[in-house]
Amino acid sequence: MILTYGAKNYDGTITYGGYSDIMVADEHFIVRIPDALPLDATAPLLCAGITVYSPLKYYGLDKPGMHVGVVGLGGLGHMAVKFAKGMGVKVTVISTSPSKKQEALGHLGADSFLVSRDQDQMKAAMGTMDGIIDTVSAMHALLPLIGLLKTNGKLVLVGAPEKPLELAAFPLLMGRKMVGGSGIGGMEETQEMINFAAKHNITADIEVIPIEYANTAMERILKADVRYRFVIDIGNTIKSTH
């Protein structure tokens, strides 16, 4: 596997990916962006978009009328809400931050909102979800999330906490529940996701920045101060070397 940036290419050179003003690629690895989609707000779909679209499809959580929970309302979480809604799924956002309720329901169109620290809210929602897409990369408890699942429910991790999460066996046995994972997706499915996004008018919520702002943007990312993805305007701000 050769990654699009920071990896060694066939000829021994290092790949620079999207931080270049121009690049040559094997046509197998090209995704066609339909004219209906703006390039800036579509760019994050090639990472965050496919990362949530793929598990929704693979784990069968894309059937209209199903109930899917989305844990965490960041870059991945806001895309999971949009794609699940596009598939006709009922979506509940699960967050530690009550302040994100208006954003989830009003702006992103989620059907309901659960504060994961509110025991009463979590108890009332137990056994109601067909699946959950967990986008959180910080340490968090899985047991309360497993409790939200119906019989045969699926908890899918797409976030990657640094330390191992605790997973008790008994709650999985009672109700034949599944914990799985998913990371990005293949070329064919990425194109399928982009076509789906064009059809349903799905884009990422972005903040476009010049290349000179990249270091400041990195500092803001560490403070979670972005809704929800920075996109660098390479075409207008990078100095060409040709």
Automatic annotation (TrEMBL):
Gene Ontology BP annotations: lignin biosynthetic process
Cofactor: Zn(2+)
InterPro entries the record matches: ADH-like_C, CAD-like, GroES-like_sf, NAD(P)-bd_dom_sf
Keyword check for Nucleotide-binding: no
Domain of life according to the entry: Eukaryota
Gene3D superfamilies: Medium-chain alcohol dehydrogenases, catalytic domain, NAD(P)-binding Rossmann-like Domain
Residue stretches making up the Alcohol dehydrogenase-like C-terminal domain: 75-198
GO molecular function, one term: oxidoreductase activity, acting on the CH-OH group of donors, NAD or NADP as acceptor
Oxidoreductase recorded as keyword: yes
Spans through the membrane: none
Keywords per UniProt: Metal-binding, Oxidoreductase, Zinc
Pfam family, one: ADH_zinc_N
Recorded family membership: Belongs to the zinc-containing alcohol dehydrogenase family.
Protein name (database record): Alcohol dehydrogenase-like C-terminal domain-containing protein
Species annotation: Hevea brasiliensis
